[in-house]
Amino acid sequence: MRVSAIGCTALLLLAVAACGGRDTGEAAGGGTGGGTAASGQCAGQQTTGITDTSIKLGGIYPLSGPASAYGDIPKGIKAYFDYVNAEQNGIGGRKVEFVVRDDGYQPPKAVEEARRLVEQEEVFALFQTLGTPSTTAVWDYTNQRKVPQIFVATGASQWGTDTSHPWTIGWQPNYVSESRVYAQYLKKEKPDAKVAVLYQNDDFGKDLLNGFKRATDGSQVQVVAEQSYEVSDPSVDPQMRNLAESKADVFLNVTTPKFGSQALAADAKNTSWNPLHIVNNVAASVTVLQPVGFENVQGVVSSTYYKDPNDPIWADDAEMKLYRQKMEQYAPGADPNVPYHAFGWAVASSFHKAMDAAACPTREGLRDSVRNLQNVQVDMLLPGVTMQTGQDDGFPIESMQLMQFKGERWELFGDVIDTRKEFGPLTN
Length: 428
Known about the structure:
Layout: H1 8-11, E1 54-61, H2 73-87, E2 95-102, H3 107-120, E3 125-129, H4 132-145, E4 149-152, H5 158-161, E5 168-170, H6 175-189, E6 194-200, H7 203-216, E7 222-229, H8 237-244, E8 250-254, H9 257-269, E9 276-279, H10 286-289, E10 301-304, H11 318-330, H12 339-357, H13 363-369, E11 399-406, E12 409-418, H14 419-423
Parallel strand pairs: 1-2, 1-3, 3-4, 4-5, 6-7, 6-8, 8-9
Antiparallel strand pairs: 10-11, 11-12
């Protein structure tokens, strides 16, 4: 995420409601999107897609294609919104309508769906566009239109280091910070590690790989082999064979779910290569590991920042109990044990907190609220993980905890690592 725009917007991120321009020509209550007229400090700001009783959001996900495993996320989001609509009178008295579109993990399709959501559906905001390529393809459009593109489902560092796209912001820990967590772990536990890396050949994969290299610079941890893949590739088996030849003692698996599962399976089959396997968070769901066979993924390491519904330590947790109850009630066909559902619940709850904190029920108000989050607690996040942003910090979540796969689930180990404190803030 690249934080705040220049001029009026950048100077006023912390003065939440002071900026009143409506450069798109949509006055409060104006346009065909409707909305009630704001008064005082909110006058003149955009209210397309929001009224006193409703708010319309649009999400773009790969419901089909090579990253379709992420299609579970909007199920968790919708369950949360259905719950607050039915039992809490919505968010601030506004019932939430969540419109989901499928881009098949194809950037041109993401642009097409973003235009449809903004111009035809007239949504208040894009809440979640999934994937670095799709979000990158869309963010020029949303920022030109001054439409919030909130809590995008990608950890690319550009969402927090860019200064020219103030309407776009991420949510999850960025990939550079995630890579720092793995680098710190290896420098302590395997200080002479030789690392082989498989990575997706786009900004997502390169962000994590380059962050890892920078974080290990000056240490004895070395990247000795690299192989990339394209999302259109049918398999990563050739790349895995090449990496195995390196005889590296650590394998860093920087993939999305389909290819993460393939890489895990290839690693399990190659009995002559037995590296410590680290899989990045976005491919660490049990739904990725299960097809490989849990017996074949024992000891795999990853990191996380939200509660895993499969972990019995949360059995008596109030938020986990609520999540399970409401998933059963409002998404009866969805398995609450799927972590991507819990991810969706957590990010929807985060949106709720951000909207409640907005000084104005406008697009400008939401834009400014998400950039002025002050240690906001979201109950589905791990204890010690909060949302924090500010004028010089556009990354809402920057804390993670390591986990290792044992038996049929992930087990947390070590302490929550606040990467802001451990490594300093990311800058452009």
